[in-house]
Automatic annotation (TrEMBL):
GO molecular-function term, one example from the UniProt record: zinc ion binding
One GO process term, biological-process aspect: methionine biosynthetic process
Domain (Cobalamin-independent methionine synthase MetE C-terminal/archaeal) ranges: 12-331
Pfam families: Meth_synt_2
Listed CDD domains: CIMS_like
UniProt feature coiled coil, ranges: none
Protein name: Methionine synthase
């Protein structure tokens, strides 16, 4: 592990972005997120560009292809893997160009890259027979190792190209479904069994250790397995604050107690009927820390502000507005401004 850290007290994006133009997206992200820009995903480009398809560009010696129901492991590199690699290369080219134009190359300014996490990937990718990788413990282990190796190579390449340190986000939206055994199978009698938490933890730990860069694990679904993420080796855990329940509070507090920082999803991922101001967006965060019994100063020293999830489903106008709103909230936190005391 390097001495690179994920910045706190800043805003960043979760990952996906609307549209199909990587250069336009890179210019916006670099401009709107000066403290922690990220390499966006553009799923509107189709197969190989979505969260699962992008993994095809990262997996080492485990090609993916398309099936009638999604993505499937295959023996040979085919169209899907070639397309995914080409799209990822274009995205890195675009970010490098925007980074260079912004005068950031060679600085100590971190950049975030995203990938689907190993457990969610295994829950969505099929074996040759149509069953999910999750149903085969050997294949699950191999997929985890392949992904981690590919992400480590991606981190090294991005660091070289950008001349800047890289931090990693692992997206695990299906984590709770994997642990609960609630994923459908090819038949009612062949649904994947629940993956025991110790096995899931060991896989996530091994991936994070192999990546060798600071990792933020993001889960925007409800029922986040707080204890597993706390022990995973992640430097930061991200989640949608609007999904929190009373029973989640202890888990969030234990993350902070364990020196795991938080990426709080405070900004809606799609345009609301009425655009909230920064006070409304900040209030759930201040209320959360109050309920946990932590000082509000942690909002600038232990927290990153993000949209609640990826922005692929938003309009281009709202996507830019969402990043600006996240930055506005972080500035208020840095200034120690209390939303409740504002007129």
């Amino acid at each position: 592990m390097t001495d690179v850290r994920i910045p706190v007290g800043v805003a960043t994006g979760v990952g996906s972005w609307p549209g199909t133009d990587p250069r336009e997206a890179a210019e916006i992200v670099v401009g709107e997120l000066p403290a922690l820009p990220h390499l966006v995903e553009l799923p509107a480009r189709g197969i190989g560009a979505d969260m699962i398809g992008r993994a095809a560009a990262l997996l080492v010696d485990m090609p993916l292809d398309a099936s009638t129901t999604g993505y499937r492991l295959t023996q040979r590199i085919g169209m899907v893997t070639r397309t995914a690699r080409d799209l990822l290369a274009r995205d890195v080219d675009a970010l490098e160009e925007a980074w260079e134009l912004a005068g950031r190359r060679g600085t100590e300014q971190p950049v975030k890259v995203q990938t689907v996490g190993p457990l969610t990937l295994a829950s969505q990718v099929e074996l040759s027979g149509g069953h999910r990788v999750l149903t085969d413990r050997g294949a699950l282990r191999d997929l985890t190792e392949s992904l981690a190796e590919g992400v480590a190579e991606h981190v090294a390449e991005a660091a070289r190209r950008l001349g800047s340190p890289i931090v990693v986000q692992l997206d695990e939206p299906a984590l709770n479904a994997v642990l609960a055994g609630s994923l459908p199978g090819v038949s009612i009698l062949q649904a994947p069994r629940a993956l025991p938490e110790p096995e899931a933890l060991a896989l996530l730990q091994s991936a994070i250790e192999r990546i060798g860069a600071p990792v933020l694990v993001h889960c925007c679904a409800a029922d986040v397995p707080w204890g597993l993420l706390r022990r995973s080796g992640a430097a930061m855990v991200g989640f949608d604050v609007s999904t929190l329940r009373t029973e989640d509070l202890d888990g969030v507090g234990e993350l902070l107690d364990a020196d795991v920082d938080l990426a709080l999803g405070l900004v809606p991922a799609t345009a609301p009927e009425r655009t909230p101001d920064w006070r409304e967006l900040a209030e759930p965060a201040t209320r959360l820390l109050d309920r946990l019994g932590f000082a509000r100063t942690l909002l600038s020293s232990r927290v990153v502000v993000t949209p609640s999830c990826g922005l692929a489903g938003a309009s281009p106008e709202w996507s830019r507005s969402a990043l600006r709103a996240a930055s506005d909230v972080t500035r208020a936190f840095a200034d120690g401004v209390d939303p409740a005391e504002m007129p």
